[in-house]
Design a protein that fits this description.
It is built from 17 helices and 14 strands. 34% of the residues lie in helices and 23% in strands. 41% of the residues are buried. The chain is of the alpha/beta class. The N and C termini lie far apart (71 Å). The chain folds into 2 domains: 195 residues, 2-Layer Sandwich (c-terminal autoproteolytic domain of nucleoporin nup98), CATH 3.30.1610.20; 199 residues, Vaccinia Virus protein VP39 (Rossmann fold). The longest helix has 16 residues. It is an enzyme of class 2 (transferase). Belongs to the methyltransferase superfamily. HEN1 family. InterPro entries: 3'-RNA_MeTfrase_Hen1_bac (IPR024026), Hen1 (IPR026610), Hen1_N (IPR024740), Hen1_N_sf (IPR038546), Methyltransf_12 (IPR013217), SAM-dependent_MTases_sf (IPR029063). It holds the Pfam family Methyltransf_12.
């Protein structure tokens, strides 16, 4: 099976630096199921192509399977594994290009952080659902997609097309993002299980999906297919994605298979309910200027920008990549001069004072505080409530008690969470902060209410006392 990646970035041979594979060498890498060869069919200043060829050893692959494997039969020896891209190619690519997938390149870090012209070609790819599924998966990521069906037999047109396509992707994409997208989406398109899947598969999905899976319109389909439709793993993954701000299906209840008609009335995703609740709270407060602290890729900022009542909007995040995603989401480069003056994006850390945080009617900390190490939480409080001192602060955070309703969830909802509060713990924290910095606080729940465990998300609305006493 074969995968090629081409760039016309000048100088194109910088692709070798990004992949950490020298264009003048042919390199081999042993895998448990075969051998990977990496080489460069062309390497000029104007155009450079790297090829990854996987030679599968069917006997070695068959011997690694258990007797309970789905294809324990002659199919282990007579199959398409040596010729068609699959999860095996995704695994091999992820291993061989592991450093490139991390986005690290000491000698060309600025280039590694940038979107460059890329062309990716996979000559033979199983595609369950046909070319239309390939378009649904790759186009939202900014790719131009060509998925050409491969006939069953060129000599017999009446037999129709096979389940394979020739896939060609072109676009301006960061190389690390492109490799991580392939790592997830190749097995999703094939939807065949070639290796044992354990709980760490959820962590792999979260890592490879960072920065793009959260906002993908087919996140639910991708998650279910990638995890082999294993209900427990899928629910854990969807619960964790919900905490990243994804517009995905509710994480507690499994959705119907994509081939089954969905009911007309779908449950509103928790993240949507959270955005709506915070948005309404800001309107009720009469805020005209709002800063979203820890804005991430800008989903909530998009809602703020579309609301004329907010005349001044700012988004801040410690991650420059998230801010780049936010700028693309808001189409900052296409804004009119008047609109651009209304919106500001900047990089900053919430544990250090920054004069740009000040001067707003309201500040939003949506699913942010739980990502801060407890010893540094007081620094955040001092920066936001003491130094910036907006007229109001809206905080949302997970309700740890509700976690008991997420089937298969062990520990916290996301690996980056430093803590998750119960309702009593949020009450103690918010009362202390309000008393210390001269605010009053009201607490509410967001999402489906459980009579015993409360709501999945809890919200605290702080208003400055001198404002409320006017």
């Amino acid at each position: 099976m074969l995968l090629t990646v081409t760039t016309t970035h000048t100088p194109a041979t910088d692709l070798g630096y990004l992949l950490h594979k020298h264009p003048d060498r042919v390199q081999e890498f042993k895998q448990s199921f075969g051998t990977v060869t990496v080489f460069y069919p062309e390497a000029t200043r104007e155009r450079c192509t790297v090829a990854l060829a996987l030679d599968v050893d069917p006997l070695r692959l068959a011997r690694s399977r258990t007797k309970n494997a789905p294809d324990f039969s002659l199919a282990q020896y007579v199959n398409d594994r040596s010729y068609a891209a699959s999860s095996l190619l995704a695994v091999a690519m992820a291993d061989v290009f592991s450093t490139a997938r991390s986005g690290r390149c000491d000698s060309r870090q600025e280039l590694a952080d940038s979107a460059i012209p890329l062309e990716i070609v996979i000559p033979v790819l199983p595609c369950r659902g046909g070319p239309e599924v390939a378009h649904r998966l790759f186009e939202p990521l900014g790719w131009t997609v060509e998925a050409e069906p491969i006939p069953l037999d060129d000599a017999f047109a009446e037999w129709g097309d096979s389940r394979y396509v020739r896939l060609r992707l072109t676009g301006l994409v960061r190389l690390a993002d492109a490799l991580n997208q392939l790592h997830v989406l190749l097995p999703v398109l094939d939807e065949s299980e070639h290796y044992w899947q354990g709980p760490d598969e959820v962590d792999k999905l979260m890592r490879s999906g960072e920065g793009w899976l959260a906002s993908h319109p087919e996140a639910d389909l991708i998650t279910r297919r990638y995890l082999g439709r294993r209900g427990g793993l899928t629910r854990v993954a969807l619960a964790r994605l919900a905490e990243l701000g994804d517009e995905v299906e509710d994480a507690v209840e499994p959705s119907e298979d994509e081939e089954v008609l969905q009911p007309e009335e779908k449950r509103v995703p928790l993240n949507t309910q959270r955005h709506e609740a915070v948005h309404q709270a800001l309107l009720d407060l009469g805020a005209r200027s709002v800063i979203d602290l820890g804005c991430g890729p800008g989903q909530f900022l998009d809602r703020l920008v579309k609301t004329p009542a907010f005349t001044r909007i700012a988004g801040s995040d410690v991650s420059t990549r998230s801010l780049q995603h936010a700028a693309r989401r808001l189409r900052v480069e296409r804004m009119s001069e008047r609109q651009a003056e209304r919106v500001q994006l900047f990089q900053s850390a919430l544990t250090y004072e920054d004069e740009r945080f000040a001067g707003f009617d309201a500040a939003v900390l949506m699913e942010v505080v739980e990502h801060v190490d407890p010893p540094r939480l007081e620094a955040l409080e001092r920066v936001v409530f003491g130094a910036a001192r907006p007229g109001a602060v809206v905080v949302t955070t997970p309700n740890a008690e509700y976690n008991a309703l997420y089937e298969g969830l062990v520990g916290m909802r996301h690996p980056d969470h430093r803590f998750e509060w119960t309702r009593a713990e949020l009450g103690d924290w918010s009362d202390r902060v309000a008393s210390t910095y001269g605010y009053q606080v009201e607490r509410r729940g967001i999402g489906d209410l459980d009579e015993t465990l409360g709501n999945p998300t809890q919200m605290a609305i702080f208003t400055r006392k001198e404002d409320s006493d006017d």
